[in-house]
Amino acid sequence: MFDGRTATTVLLIGLCVVGVGFAQSLDENWNDFLHYTKIGRFDLAKGYAQAVLQGEPDPVKLLELSQDNPQGYDILLRVHAAAPDAELADLTEQVLGLIERGRFIRRSSPKIIVEEIARLSTTPRGKLTATKRLKAAGEYAIPYMLAAMADPARRAELSNIIETLPQIGRPAIRPLAAALQTDNMAVKAEVVRALGKIGYPQSLAYLKYVVEKSDSAEIRGLAAQSIRQIDPAAAQISAAQLFFQLAENYYYHSESLAPAKDADAANVWFLNSAGRQLTWKGVDPSYFHELMAMRCCEWALKADERFGNAIGLWLAAFFKAEATGLSMPDYFGEAHAGALVYATTAGPEYLHQALARAVRDNNADVALGAVEALATTAGEKSLLYVLGPTQPLLQALSFNDRAVRYSAAIAMAAAGPVQRFPESRLVVTNLADAISQRNGSAGDTDRWNQELADSYALRAAEVMLKLAESRNAVVDLSLAQAALLGATEDERPEIRILAGGILAYLDSPAAQRAITAMALDAGNDLNVRIPAFDSLAVSAKLHASMLSEQMIDAIYALISSDATDPDLRGAAAAAFGALNLPSRKVKDLILDQAKS
After folding, report:
1. Is the same domain home to 431 and 347?
2. Please, are residues 291 and 283 in contact by the beta-carbon 8 Å criterion?
3. 297 inside domain
4. How far, in Å, CA of 582 to CA of 42, rounded?
5. Into how many domains does the chain fold?
6. Of 348, 253, 250, 347, residue with least CA distance to 298
7. How many helices (DSSP H) and strands (DSSP E) are in the chain?
């Protein structure tokens, strides 16, 4: 018999079972999830949603349940959109994600697709059902449909497949475009016809390529006819230009070119090396558009190798793809070089195209890649390249990303300009800023960190020293004196040393005294003090002494002391001699060591 305590325990267990949907089937948990969501009992609905997810359901089974209850599915969509309860909205999103996964699995199943292609040639009702399901399969149906069309044993099915092919619609275009490379002329002809019937502009470039390159007069005629079906005006535009326009649409993520949203990957289509079978490579949707832009640029160059604009866009798209931080797709191959390698090889004209686009788009990743490539390879004339009404690199000096600004300034300075240009002050301002900056700040991109700050400071200081040593008359380093004076007290020893080296070339008492203070500071390491005395010697030779009497006495005391490190003593003595002081000090030094 149950006593009161036992009855209470059983009741509590029962309530827990109801609360989490424990020991119920997927159907029951799904229905209860919908029911309690519908009546607003979100506390209970969350328990059943968790039970659905914890049961790791078959996505296809979950899809079927949602299709059996379309009203319930609509309720979930509204709950997800309105989010009356944040936790429930999150759980609902996970359930909806599983349903979409089921939709993808079912529509991309080879077994189902093959069965539906065969069903096209059964009864009128069977054909109607098969057409509907093949349209749902979208791009995944195309390889199997084309394979059936090419199979001599399935000739009786050909007319039904040909009739259905264009009904797949826009999702069929990418695989059909790849299939245009087939050497099966009969299949190629039907692909051309289907693209015309589908009627979307993204087919135009591929069709015009056929018009320009095909050896078959019949195929060329069919392609021209399909172009007229889509847009008669395109007949007057070259394939290279059409591919470039398509590449730009991909580059700017045109919604009409977006991949299906119910899969984890987006497909890039190829015809295999044998030229007989369509294949696809799934890539991360994050850079699908950039990869497709690159492919379209490649086709533009195949159509016309002189179409240089495609090179600049290809480089921009590659930099943009790399900016996602993802590994490049495996179809690139292990030996495929990175974007910077191609960029440095491409030359200034195409880099300026990419940079001009990046400046217009305010895309820091592309701008930085282009500028870094220019810094590696370009001379002054190339850097000041005029593209239309603008000079892209000079525009980059005012870019809203500090890494781009600094790289542009370093590129200009490294070229050692000899012709004056109005933006030379910006070059110095950015170099000075690069030496001074230590941390990121509001508005910076995520890339800025201490390591990058140190790298830019070092690069800026090194290029400024080269300008100073070459006595460059275009870039006025005196404008950076305040930053350089501050750099002599920088916690980074290499920056202090370089700052002293640059200051040595400035005809300024403050510059020479800052070098001297760094050399005399006993708190500095010898690796800093000795180069500082070397810089003081350079400054003294160029500008004579501008030191105070106290500093001169301090250097003298250092030289005259037996306790001074020999290397430091030698560097101090060399600097002292370069100051070309009155002979009294030298006389004192000689007499102080004399023994009589």
Report:
1. yes
2. yes
3. yes
4. 93
5. 4
6. 250
7. 32, 2
